[in-house]
Every structure is written in C-alpha cells, then in structure tokens.
Design goal:
Helices cover 62% and strands 0% of the residues. By secondary structure, it is an all-alpha fold. The protein has one domain. The chain is elongated, with a radius of gyration of 20 Å.
Length: 73
C-alpha cells in the first residue's frame, strides 16, 4: 500500500461495526511502500498512459475482439 492516511486499520472502524472491523483487521498484514519508491510514480504514469490510449476506446463487437486476439497470438 502507499502511505495514504486512510490506509490503516482505523479506517475499518469508520466503515464497519467494531466487531466486523476487528475481524477484518486481524486478517490483514499491511506492508507500506517506502516513501522514496520512485517505481511507484513510474507505474502510475504508465497506467495513466494506457488508460488514455487503450481503455478509452470501445470495441464495437465481441467478434472483432476475439478475431484480433487470435490474429495477434
């Protein structure tokens, strides 16, 4: 996880009843990314580029999608 302030077990207690939050929190093992992790910025930039170039386009039919998948295998 990144170091955003909502990524803590305290946020579970805001979203759920105490018993449910405690049960969920006991199952979690949270590992935060280092603050200096430059790879995270690179990954976020790449996801942004992909979403603008690829995900914004719609595929007109399932047939076209499958035929393109087969063609590029």
């Amino acid at each position: 996880m990144d170091n955003l302030n909502i990524h803590s077990t305290a946020s579970l207690y805001k979203a759920f009843e105490p018993d449910t939050a405690r049960r969920i929190a006991q199952r979690l093992e949270i590992h935060y990314t280092p603050i200096h992790a430059s790879w995270l910025n690179i990954a976020e930039i790449e996801i942004g580029i992909l979403s603008k170039q690829c995900l914004s386009q719609s595929i007109p039919s399932c047939y076209l999608l499958i035929s393109n998948l087969v063609k590029y295998r």
